[in-house]
Amino acid sequence: MQLLDASRELAIRPIWRLGFRPFFLFGTAFALLAVLIWLAALSGQVAWQPAGGWLAWHRHEMVFGFGGAVIAGFLLTAVQNWTGNPGLRGRSLAMLAMFWLTARLAWLMGAPLMLVIPLELAFLPVVAFVMGRSLWRVRQRGNYPVVVVLTLLAVADALVLWGLAAGDDALQRQGVLAALWLVAALMGLIGGRVIPFFTQRGLGRVQPVKARPRLDWSMLVGGVLLAASFASGLGLQPNPWLAGLCMLLGVGNLLRLARWYDAGIWHVTLLWPLHLAFAWLAVAPLGLAAWHLGILANPSLAQHALGVGAMGGLILAMIARVSLGHSGRPLEPPRAMGAAFALLNLGAAARVLLLPIAGSAALWLAAVCWAVAFALFLRHYAVLLCTPRVDGRPG
């Protein structure tokens, strides 16, 4: 275990002291701006085209831009707790964040692909390498699957970029959907650890929920297999075998959620959004199963249940808690965050449940709810992420 030199660490500008700081800040700001830009593009209010066009940009950036930033911030922070060794910080962290930011700008502004592709390809492999190196040093095998999923995400990103270079929209879609379900697998892995733990701590339970490793691992393997079906193109067509896999994933996540549930969560602002996000993580594969069986006409509804409800909801709930804990503050979020969590779930419901009925009105409602939710987070957390811990400790 490496010991931190407090004076040296405190000399680092606060935003570069730990991974959650820049990536939660930049990622949530991007989540807000990207949806507003997407709405402007749909309305014909934007004069330029990003690389690959607006649909390709929207698909890619909500998963790899927004999702990739927050995943990196969470894992680069968590690995310090997991291993007891210092996380990425200072100039190295700043350089990684600038790679991410430059790639976002290059893609959005329609830069030449010879610039966009290497910038985009650099980010996830570096995060996976940093994570893998830290875990290998202490031989922490239990977290190796995290590095495997990160590596697979990088492969999915490469598939999207291959499709972008070849002008092949199908390849791009395969890569993005594979990545989305890899993120789902990662959320199931991490959420399966932290949600019962946070629930136990938040409600003052004495006995933790008994672990079910076989169930947890089966959900991870099933999620990776589903992602592989999209990467291969098999998942883009209705398939009864994939319907069975999706049903197993949905029922398995519902079973996990039921084991963690306690009525007291509805009185704790930092708990109920976690449980609701995990509920969306069950709804999404069940919706996809319905599409594979011909019950649901549009698979996009299931994908958005995952992207908006599960990914967006879990990210917002997690970063609200992690930011408080790692800045030395009590785990009591600003009152406005309750409204932010509610708005995000309302937006998910509008995008998934109301869209077939209300059309564009539901789309606009979903986008506005998403934007306001992340604007509230930035309003109350941006300064926190850029200032030192209140207890004077490094980090």
Automatic annotation (TrEMBL):
* Signal sequence interval, chain numbering: none
Q: Which InterPro entries match?
A: NnrS
Q: Which domain of life is it from?
A: Bacteria
Q: Which residues form a coiled coil?
A: none
Which residue ranges run through the membrane? Answer: 23-42, 62-79, 91-107, 113-132, 144-164, 176-196, 217-235, 241-258, 270-293, 305-324, 336-355, 361-378
Keywords, ordered alphabetically: Membrane, Transmembrane, Transmembrane helix
Record protein name field:
NnrS family protein
Species, as recorded: Metapseudomonas resinovorans (Pseudomonas resinovorans)
* Organism phylogeny: Bacteria, Pseudomonadati, Pseudomonadota, Gammaproteobacteria, Pseudomonadales
